[in-house]
Design brief:
By secondary structure, this protein is of the alpha+beta class. The chain folds into three domains: 287 residues, no CATH class; 112 residues, no CATH class; 59 residues, Orthogonal Bundle (Arc Repressor Mutant, subunit A), CATH 1.10.10. 40% of the residues lie in helices and 19% in strands. An eight-stranded mixed beta sheet has the order 4-5-8-1-9-10-11-12. A three-stranded antiparallel beta sheet has the order 3-2-13, with no helix packed on it. It has a two-stranded antiparallel ribbon with strand order 6-7. A hairpin with a 4-residue loop joins strand 11 and strand 12. Helix 7 packs antiparallel against helix 8. The protein is elongated and about 95 Å long. The N and C termini lie far apart (76 Å).
Length: 474
């Protein structure tokens, strides 16, 4: 029997706010343990939470970016459970009325596009972090109360690679939208993976296994690639799968049982009594919608269609937004967008990386690249001369045409002067000249090199080739 994997992801990302979800403590990484805390985020008796409006805005904005519905009514709930990193013995989250519902993410996979439906993206507070040492353990509550968005997908994923590409697409959307920095080294993105298998062609879902607290996308891919065959092997050997929570042991490369899976009623959800329901009005939602940005996939498709550049060039401009913006300014009305893309990617980007500078530090306008490409395309200077012009342009700014004139880089296209250099090269090198006459056409390249050397690189290579061929065949 052939089986297929059915995979859904619950992705948690910390929102890009200055303060925590329900108090004024700083939302920052790297502070000394238990220094960004207060009675509210520690759950002391008698304190009252106050929602962070920026977190509410970012949640609604995420909904719009993920093609979700943003309902006119939402509320907070208490999820009750005991664990050392949950200082209140409950977590404030959203249960039956979340802030966003029913959306989707389109992303590139293989040679085409895939769509994963989004069940909901709900807002909650993060919990503390357990730290385990050789002889003891401790809890750092700096993270407790940080606004956390949980994005729940439908079980639309069918492979580890598909899950990996979806997660990267989701991460790009969140970064583009200013929702989160998604720095995985700082724990800003974590993922729970729900996996089941079923006979291919059937609709009924199999027994679900959840792998908790994955903190790298590559780890998610490896865990799925282990867990799916494990489940299939269990079924084929006559065994029974149980609904459970497992952990990923990255060192051993296996998943391990943690506990049998809890159900919603185990958490005793009930409405948060200290927080009013959320009822965003149209003016508030309109202000959020005004912050919606062009998404990475849409941007890539537009660059390919509007400017006629290859997909790999568009990927560069999607991955580097300032560089893409510079290219868009330069390419307006330009005759050769591909050549401009080449200069921006292969030359400008390389120099910015080498010097540790940014597009904002440049001493020239985007139009200078257009001018440089036009000069090269017209044959005024060679590509080598173009590199010299660009080097000075990057260092001191100015106009490419002025630099060409000041440095005397203009190519010589005068037929009389070029013909004289060509005749001298033929006379001085009878061997290559005879080789060309005898059918070895590549022999002309040596003669062209001699002409370029005699002209100190100023001769127009195309005209040189045409002149040499004419003289040798005449």
């Amino acid at each position: 029997m052939e089986y297929e994997a059915v995979i859904g992801l619950e992705t948690h990302c910390q929102l890009k706010t200055k303060s925590k979800m329900f108090c004024g403590c700083a939302n920052e990484f790297g502070a000394e343990p238990n220094t960004n805390v207060c009675p509210v985020c520690l759950g002391m008796p008698g304190v009252l939470p106050v929602p962070n409006e920026r977190a509410l805005q970012l949640t609604a904005l995420t909904g719009y970016l993920l093609n979700c519905e943003v309902p006119s009514f939402a509320k907070f709930d208490r999820k009750n459970y005991f664990y050392p990193d949950v200082c209140k013995d409950y977590q404030i989250t959203q249960y039956d009325f979340p802030s966003t519902t029913t959306g989707h993410v389109d992303f590139e996979f293989g040679d085409g596009l895939e769509r994963v439906r989004i069940t909901r993206a709900h807002l909650e507070e993060d919990v503390g972090k357990n730290n385990h040492f050789e002889q003891h353990s401790g809890v750092d509550f700096n993270r407790a109360g940080v606004p956390l968005l949980e994005i729940v997908s439908e079980p639309d994923l069918r492979s580890a690679d598909m899950a990996y590409d979806y997660l990267n697409a989701l991460k790009d959307i969140l970064i583009y939208g200013g929702i989160s920095d998604c720095d995985m080294e700082k724990g800003m993105v974590r993922c729970d993976v729900n996996i089941s298998v079923r006979p291919k062609g059937t609709e009924e879902l199999g027994v679900k296994v959840e792998i908790k607290n994955m903190n790298t996308f590559s780890g998610v891919r490896r865990a799925i690639n282990y867990e799916v065959p494990r489940q299939i092997e269990t079924l084929e050997s006559g065994g029974t799968l149980v609904q459970e929570t497992r952990r990923w042991n990255d060192v051993a490369g296996i998943t391990e049982t943690m506990r049998t899976k809890e159900h919603a009623h185990d958490y005793r959800y009930f409405p948060e009594p200290d927080l009013m329901p959320l009822r965003p009005d149209e003016a508030w939602l309109a202000a959020v919608r005004s912050q919606v940005v062009e998404l990475p996939l849409v941007r890539k498709q537009r660059f390919v269609i509007d400017y006629g550049i290859p997909a790999q060039d568009a990927d560069v401009f999607v991955g580097n937004v300032p560089l893409g913006g510079f290219f868009e300014q330069a390419v307006k009305g330009a005759a050769n967008p591909k050549a401009i893309a080449n200069w921006v990617i292969n030359n400008l980007q390389a120099r910015l990386t080498e010097t540790g500078s940014t597009v904002d530090d440049l001493k020239f306008e985007p139009s200078a690249i257009v001018e440089l490409v036009a000069i090269i395309d017209a044959g005024t200077i060679s590509s080598t001369g173009g590199q010299e012009v660009f080097a000075e342009l990057f260092e001191d700014g100015g106009s490419p045409a002025a630099i060409v004139e000041a440095k005397g880089l203009a190519q010589v296209s005068d037929s009389g002067e070029l013909e004289q250099w060509c005749r001298e090269a033929i006379d001085a090198n009878p061997g290559p000249a005879d080789d060309f006459r005898n059918g070895k056409e590549n022999a002309i390249n040596f003669l062209k090199g001699q002409v370029m050397k005699a002209s100190r690189g100023k001769a127009n290579p195309q005209v040189v080739g045409e002149t040499l061929a004419k003289l040798l065949k005449g």
